[in-house]
Amino acid sequence: MYILYVHYGYVNRIGGAFLKHYLKDRLKEQRTKLGLTQKEIADKLNIGSTSYQRYENGTREPKLDTLCQLADIFETSTDYLLGRSNKNVPTYSNGKKEDKWDKLGSVLSLSEKEKVIKALTE
């Protein structure tokens, strides 16, 4: 797996061992933070527990759709899981939390929404 990114107008490529190092560590970190087993995560992904174990061991890389599912499960970004960001900012793509966020957003003024977004991203 390789990630292309633009830095000062140049396209750069990172991948291989760099990504595996961050991904495996952050998958384990997020899973243990939630108090879940490898099997429980594998079940949520509809894959075998051995496949998930390989992601955490760094011997196998998840496909893009699986990586997105993992970010949803852990309520974080794919950038954080891949080591492209050190900010573990919660994302709310799951139904219940998204509904709560939408309800909260409907009662806030524009300036209040901006303050909330600023506080969450700092």
UniProtKB/TrEMBL annotation:
UniProt-listed InterPro entries = Cro/C1-type_HTH, Lambda_DNA-bd_dom_sf
List membrane-spanning regions.
none
Q: Give all residue intervals belonging to the HTH cro/C1-type domain.
A: 27-81
Q: Which PROSITE patterns match?
A: HTH_CROC1
Please provide, alphabetically and separated by semicolons, the GO molecular function terms listed in this UniProt record: DNA binding
According to the lineage, what is the superkingdom? Bacteria
Keywords linked to the UniProt accession = DNA-binding
Report the PANTHER family cross-referenced here.
HTH-TYPE TRANSCRIPTIONAL REGULATOR ANSR, TRACRIPTIONAL REGULATORY PROTEIN-RELATED-RELATED
Quote the protein name from its UniProt record. Helix-turn-helix transcriptional regulator
Q: Which organism is it from?
A: Limosilactobacillus fastidiosus
